[in-house]
Amino acid sequence: MNRVAVVTGAARGIGAATVRGLAAAGWAVVAVDRASDDPRLAYPMGSEGQLHAVVASALAVTTGTMTASAGSDRIVAHVADTTDEEALGAAVALAEDRFGGLDAMVAVAGVIAGGVPLWEMPGDQLGAVLGVDLGGPITAARVGIPGLLRRPAPRQGRFLAVASAAATGGMPGLAAYGAAKAGVAGLVRGLAVDLADTGVTANAVSPGSTATAMLDESARLYGLEDTRPFADQQPIKRLLTPEEVAAALVWLAGVDSGALTGAVIPVDGGLSL
Length: 273
Ligand SMILES: NC(=O)c1ccc[n+]([C@@H]2O[C@H](COP(=O)([O-])OP(=O)(O)OC[C@H]3O[C@@H](n4cnc5c(N)ncnc54)[C@H](O)[C@@H]3O)[C@@H](O)[C@H]2O)c1
What we know:
Number of helices: 8
Distance between the termini: 40 Å
Radius of gyration: 17 Å
Bound molecules: nicotinamide-adenine-dinucleotide
Strand order of the largest sheet: 3-2-1-4-5-6-7
Low-confidence stretches: 65-71
CATH class: Alpha Beta
CATH architecture: 3-Layer(aba) Sandwich
Largest sheet: 7 strands, parallel
CATH topology: Rossmann fold
Shape: globular
Helix content: 40-55%
C-alpha cells in the first residue's frame, strides 16, 4: 500500500525537500503552502509558482523523467494557511479522497521575526511567530491526527513537526521564536502520551542552521552580510542542506521509526552540543 502524507511549508526550503524526499520514497503527497506573503513579516514567503515547481520536480522524481507524466497525480499542490483549521482540514480531506487515507502529517511551515528583545518586538510580528510556529503545528495536529486515526488498525501513523535548535538554546533577539519552538517540543511529547498505543507516533526534528530563505532572513535580522557566521557556529562548520533535514523527516515518516514517540531529534551539525 502506498503511504500518503500532507506536508506544510512545501513551496521551498525544508518543506520542499521533504516533498521531494517522500516522493522519491514512493509516497503520495499533498504539498501545502500559503503561497503568498504575510503582511506582518518583512520577508517574502514561498509563492504559488514555487509550490507548483516543487510538485513538478517531485513528480519527476516519482516518474523518473524530467517532466511530470500525463495523468500522474501522486503529488498535488494545495494552497492553505497552516493556521486555518478549515483550509488545512481540506488538505487532509484531499489526501483521503484522492489517495485513500493519511499516514503522515508533516508540519514544516514556519516563519521568523525578531532580532530585537521581546519587549521591543512589534505585536503583529509576535502574533505571526506564535501563530504560525506554534499555532500551525497545533492546527496540523488537530486536523491531521483524526485523519491518521481513520486508517484501520494496526496502523503506522506519524505526526511530525519541525522545532529548532532555538527550542533548547537561548538565541539573541529570538525569544518569541524560541518560545514557539519549545512549545512544539512540548506539543509532540503531550501528543505522544495521548496517542499511546494507537499506532500513531508524534515526533519532531530540531534543525540547526539550514541554507534556506529563512536563514537569509535570520542573517538580515542580525545585521549580517551573509549566512557564513551561522556555519562557523556549528561544530561541523557548514550549513545544513534542506535535504539533510528532510532525510530525517522522511525516515521518521516511515514504518521503521515506530519505536520513537515524543522525541525531539537534533538534526543540527552539533549546534546543540
Ligand atoms: N532554516 C533554518 O536554519 C531553520 C532552523 C531551525 C528550524 N527551522 C524550521 O524549519 C521549518 C522550515 O523552514 P525553512 O528554513 O525551510 O523556511 P522557508 O522560509 O524557506 O520556508 C517556509 C515555507 O513555509 C511557508 N509558510 C510560512 N507560513 C505559512 C503558513 N502560515 N501557512 C502555510 N505555509 C506557510 C512559506 O511560504 C515557505 O514556503 C520552519 O518551521 C523553521 O522554523 C529552520
